[in-house]
Amino acid sequence: MKKVFSILPAVGMMLAAAEVKATTIATVIQDAPTEGFGHEALKTRFIEGGAGFMGIVLLCLILGLAFVIERIIYLNMATTNTAKLTRDVEEALNSGGVDAAKEVCRNTKGPVASIFYQGLERNNEGIDSVEKSIVAYGGVQMGQLEKNVSWISLFIAIAPMLGFMGTVIGMIQAFDKISAAGGLDASLIAGDIKVALLTTVFGLVAAIILQIFYNYIIAKIDSIVNDMEDASISLIDLLVANKK
User: Which tens digit of pLDDT belongs to each residue from 55-93?
Assistant: First the structure.
């Protein structure tokens, strides 16, 4: 019995210590998401990265997003209901001839309508001339669709490269401090290493964001180009049938 009572204080101390540790772990887990991913924490990390490279990375992201927004707006405006346009042109050809079909194309926005109009303009010169006109003007329209896309890809490449450059410069500064101090002191180089890693992180984040939008834009362009090709074939078939 005496042995049991002698053990009780030790057990109580162990339980108290375990409770303190559990409380500490719970507090850390609760605070970790806020400190690691919160808006204020993100802004603080950005400032800690330094105004030099972080500002340039942010500028790349802003300019890239500006080109992304411009391209998305243009491509959405260039998207046409090709099936409806083809039906309208066919009805206009059957009822009012080529002039009525050209009027339909003139009142419709988008590269498909422009290609239709150019093909109808060359209708009197023969089907071969129509085909050549469609191919030539289709290339012009593709150039318009792909305009400024190369700038987006440029910023996708530059953003992580600037981040890596900031990392290299930060590591060089850290080694310079080690060399000047004559020994390795973690507290002496921790700041430089953290700045070096932050520039890489934000450079990669900027590149990832732009890459997602870039892939969407490329997919949108491919879809419009496919519609242009299908519509061109349909127009030639309509003109051949109309001549008969």
Answer: 788 888 999 999 999 999 999 988 888 888 888 888 888
What is d(CA 127, CA 119) in angstroms, rounded to the nearest whole number? 9
**Residue 184: band (very low, low, confident or very high) from pLDDT cuts 50, 70, 90:** low
**What predicted TM-score, i.e. pTM, was given to this entire model?**
0.72
* Domain chopping of the chain, boundaries: 1-37, 50-244
